[in-house]
Amino acid sequence: MGAVTPLGNSVAETWDRLIQGKSGIEKLTRFDATHFSAKTAAEVKNFSLSDYIQVNERHRMDRFTEYAVASSIMAIQDADVVPGETVHQERIGVSFGTAIGGIESFENTYNDLQNGGYQNLYPFSTTTVISNMAASQVAIAIGAKGVNTCVVLSCASGSNAIGDAYRAIQRGDAYVMVAGGSEASLTPLGIGAFCAMGAISTNPDPKSACRPFDQNRDGLVMGEGAGAVVLESLDSAISRQAKIYGEIIGYSTVSDAYHITSPAPGGEGAVRAMNGALLESHLNLGDIQYINAHGTSTTYNDRYETEAIKSFLGKRAYDVPISSTKSMTGHMMGAAGAVEAIFTLLSIKTGIIPPTVNLHTPDKECDLDYVPNEARKTKIKAALSNALGFGGHNTALLFKSFEGS
C-alpha cells in the first residue's frame, strides 16, 4: 500500500491520524478564496516528488500524477516487488483512476495561451492534462510493461480501478497489478464549480466543516491525494512470502441510470452493488462486520446510502458499524475509493474501525451506527467499501481477512 493524503504522506502517518480522529481539513491555501463561498479544503502538505524519484524535465507532471507516482512507488516497495527481478516487467500492470485529471495544468495552460498565444505553451502541455497520465507515468516510474488502464468514473474511479485490477488478475492478464486513484482539483475551477453547484460546505470552521450523517451538515469538503495498492493472486503472494493485508473477494459496479448528480431514491444502485459483491464472495450476510461508507456529508448521499445499507443488511443494519472517513480526509474525488479501500483493509488487519468525526446531532433519517467521534476496536472478518459517483456510478469492494495472517 501507498498513500499521499491530507493526513500524511504515507500509509502509516495517515492511518495513525485517522484512528485518532484527527482532521486534515484546514483553511484553503492553494489560491485566494476570498470571493469563493467555500474557504476550507483538505490539502496535501509538505509533499515533494523528489522524495520518491529523481525529477527532471521529462518527468514534468500535474500534481495529480505526482501523487499517483509517489503512492505507487510506496506500494511496490511495501509489497517488495522489484520489476524485472521478482516479477517480469511484462506481467506487471497498472490500473489507475481519477475523476478530473490535470485540471491545475489545464488552468495554467489556458492562462499561458491567453497571455502569449500558443507559442507561449509548454510543448508537452497535453501530457500534463490528460487523465491517463497517472497510469502512464506510474508505469514509466516503476517499469511496468503489462496491461495499463485509466478509469474515469467520477468519485468511484479509485474503487473501480482496484476492481478492474482484480479482474485482470483473475483473467490471467497480469501476475501483479498496481491499482489506485489520484486527484488534485483544489483549483479555482475545481472549487468554483462545486460552489456554483451548491454541493460544497460553506462552514468557515475547517475542523467542523465536514460532518457526514449529522443533521447540520451543509455539503462536502474537497480533498486531494492518492492511494495505491498492489494486487496479485493468493498463490503468488504466498510463494513470495509477501506481506498480505487481506483478500479482495468481491467487486460489483452498476449504474442506477437516474440522475447526473443525485443518487437514486433509496440508494437502489448502491444496494445492487453491495449485493453483487456479496454474491461473488460466497460469504454470508452475517460475515459483513464493517462498512466504509461513501458518506460525503451531503443531504441526499448520506440519506440514500443509509437507506441502501438498511436494504442490504436487513435486520442486521443497526448492528454493523459504519464510518465515513471523509469526515477527516475530505472528499478526495477520484482518489477517495482507493484510499478508503486501504482504510477498510487496515480496519480488518488491525481490528480498529476509524470514526466518523463531527457527528454530534444525528439526522433522524441517518440512524445507524456510524462510530461517532472515537475509533472502535473489534474483530472484523469481512468489510465493504462503497463508492458512489456523479453520473449514477455505484461500486462496492468486498475484502476479508487473510486466514494465514
Description:
The structure is a single chain. With 405 residues, the protein is α/β, with parallel strands linked by helices. It has a single domain (2-400), classed as Thiolase/Chalcone synthase (Peroxisomal Thiolase, Chain A, domain 1, 3-Layer(aba) Sandwich), CATH 3.40.47. 33% of the residues lie in helices and 17% in strands. The strands form four sheets. The chain has a five-stranded mixed β-sheet with strand order 1-7-6-4-5, with helices on both faces. The chain has a five-stranded mixed β-sheet with strand order 8-14-13-9-10, with helices on both faces. Helix 6 crosses helix 12 (336-350) and helix 9 (268-281) crosses helix 10. Pathway: Lipid metabolism; fatty acid biosynthesis. Keywords: Acyltransferase, Fatty acid biosynthesis, Fatty acid metabolism, Lipid biosynthesis, Lipid metabolism, Transferase. Belongs to the thiolase-like superfamily. Beta-ketoacyl-ACP synthases family.
What descriptive keywords fit this protein?
Peroxisomal Thiolase, Chain A, domain 1, five-stranded mixed β-sheet, alpha/beta, 405 residues
